[in-house]
Amino acid sequence: MAVAPTQDVKAYRNYIGGEWIEASSGETFGVENPSSGEIVATVPKGGRDDAQRAIAAARESFDSGVWADMDPDERVRIMKSVVDKFTEHEDELAELESLQSGMTLRATGTVVIGYCINHWDYFARQADRPRQEPLDPVAFPTHSYNFVLREPVGVCAGIIPWNFPLVMAVWKLAPALAMGNSVVLKPASNTPLTALRLAELLDETDLPKGVVNVLTGGGASVGEELASHPDVDKVSFTGSTVVGRRIMQLASSTIKKCTLELGGKSPNIVYEDANIDAAVDGALWATFFHQGQVCESGTRLLLPESIHDEFVEKLVARAKQIKVGDALDYDSDMGPLVSAEQFETVSNYVRIGQEEGAKLVLGGGRPPDAPDGGYYFEPTIFTDVDNSMTIAQEEIFGPVLSVIKFKNDADAIRIANDSIYGLASAVWSEDYDRCLETARKLRTGTVWVNDHHLINCIAPFGGYKQSGLGRELGTYGLDEYTEVKHVHVDLTRDPQGKMFGVLLSEEPLGPEDVG
Ligand code: NDP
User: In whole angstroms, how far apart are CA 373 and each of 6, 150, 310, 342?
Assistant: First the structure.
């Protein structure tokens, strides 16, 4: 349960149309530090009318062309100035991210800030991408010059989760802006602070007002309004598959474009010829990074019989060395879970795992020496897991690893693909041909060979099956923020050579008559 603040906390406001405003209801809610359970800030409790106001601001800025039609060099310059803001404020942003999300300072100070700078910079450099793509001249159906215009989609809504608040804000804002769109961003209610701080930094740049709007409020109110409002042209969502389905349903009323990055249950296959010590640490990194609250965490560890016992022994010994503690303590390897609710969810899955017959070999609850107040959970390992068990099929979003045995490569691939999810996977072996052969057969949007979690700004990221729709990052991600328009310029001067002769000619025409 949240603990009341012991001193005055910062009261954030929403950023709409370049102004800092309260929710129209005047209501606010508290943001907790999951390491202590204390309220550390308040934010406006926006509702549907606030969302409508943000959508109107984004619409006005888009329709005015102030950003969409800006000189591309100028757009690049402004976007690059945001990279400078990240660099100038990296320590402060890392601390704020750790404070609200429970991700360790060691991770926010490296992974989060590193990704934000690298990814924003990549998209900034794409902001002058040519908008016109010529096509080869053709004689059929008639002589014509054809080209494609790549145009912004319009008003894009970004709805983001609490696990990587700042990186997710970058993923929703930067590609949309690079392609000339205007955006309304709704951060998760648990972790809205870095998105609002980013809005403050954007406000200090020359980005025209109204192009980016950030507002806080519940998923059922603000989120649903963004997903259904007719003036929103596209919704980009990251979060649970359950909410992803709801968003798709709401977006269908106006045939909004959707990008959905949803849940995962990523398999991590270790073959017997892998570098075992590296694979042991890789399996810990795959599962316990950010307390397992990562959509592509390697939560199913697939091991062959021949190395199973030795591997598990090393894994458990190494996992025992993981130090769980306050996210702001630089010595902590793992911080707390994001909320009391998430702690309950994870605890419940541990109970289900035991009831279904899996063997708990490590952890399973609150560490005995955890600091007071926070939502700390031990690194938890189950063996004797059958892939049909709940803990192997459902996304737990906590530090819980399920170890599953396989007989041979084909069996490993079969088990890996036996999931409603298809976000990511990993394979470990010193035999690269074997890894690549496996990679081709895995039905996931990303496959890592001898590593995990490495997302790259130039490579597409997204899921097969119920892990999502569309791709983020790289040119694949940029394309999701554009409409393509075909322009056909007729070069046939002679009316007789035009296709409309088919309609008007008294004589039957053959294909040789047109063009
Ligand atoms: P949700 O999917 O509920 O939340 C993600 C975002 O969607 C938040 O901004 C949330 O707002 C918003 N939202 C919630 N309901 C709606 C709605 N009906 N319409 C529009 N937007 C909505 O994730 P949770 O925080 O509830 O986490 C639940 C589970 O989801 C986790 O245990 C985990 O399994 C999975 N998850 C997966 C993530 C991923 O990256 N794949 C990330 C986070 C969670 P608000 O915060 O105000 O509710």
Answer: 14, 52, 37, 14
pLDDT per position as a tens digit, 40-84: 999 999 999 999 999 999 999 999 999 999 999 999 999 999 999
Cβ atoms 238, 160 nearer than 8 A: yes
Cβ of 183: how many Cβ atoms within 10 Å?
A: 27
**Nearest to residue 457, comparing CAs of 444, 476, 432?**
476
Rounded average pLDDT over 431-447: 98
CA diameter of the chain: 92
Residue among 38, 97, 225, 261 flagged as catalytic: 261
CB 455 near ligand 1, within 6 Å: no
163: pLDDT strictly greater than 90: yes
Task: Indicate if ligand 1 lies below 6 Å from the C-beta of 458.
Answer: no
Give start and end residues of each alpha helix (H) in 204-264: 224-228, 241-251
* Ligand 1 center to 161 CA (angstroms): 5
Split at pLDDT 50, 70, 90, the class of 6 is low
295 is catalytic: yes
Residue 42 C-alpha to ligand 1 middle, in angstroms?
20
- 156 given a catalytic annotation: no
Q: What pTM does this model have?
A: 0.96
Q: What angle do CA 161, 63, 210 make, to 5 degrees?
A: 50
Q: What is the mean pLDDT of residues 186-193?
A: 98
CB 47 within 8 A of CB 215: no
Q: Compute the distance between CA of residue 300 and CA of residue 305 in angstroms, rounded to an integer.
A: 15
Given 116, 156, 295, 457, the catalytic residue: 295
By C-alpha distance, which of 265, 257, 58, 291 is closest to 162?
Answer: 291
From 136-145, 156-165, 266-275, 489-498, the region with the lowest mean pLDDT: 489-498
Q: Which pLDDT belongs to residue 3?
A: 61
Hey, CA dihedral for 385, 389, 394, 400, is it positive or negative? negative
How many Å lie between the centroid of ligand 1 and the Cα of residue 7?
30
Strand residue runs (E) in 255-395: 257-261, 267-270, 300-304, 359-362, 380-383
Which residue from 168, 240, 337, 400 has its CB within 8 A of the most atoms of ligand 1, so it is best to mutate? 240
pLDDT for residue 139: 83
Residue 1: per-residue pLDDT: 53
Taking the centre of ligand 1 as the mean of its atom positions, its distance from the CA of residue 405, in whole angstroms, is: 32
As a whole number of Å, the end-to-end CA separation of the chain is 74
Determine the angle formed by the axes of helices 276-288 and 305-319, rounding to 10 degrees.
60
Give the model's pLDDT for residue 495: 77
- Burial of residue 178, with CB atoms counted within 10 A of its CB: 0-12 exposed, 13-18 middle, 19 or more buried: buried
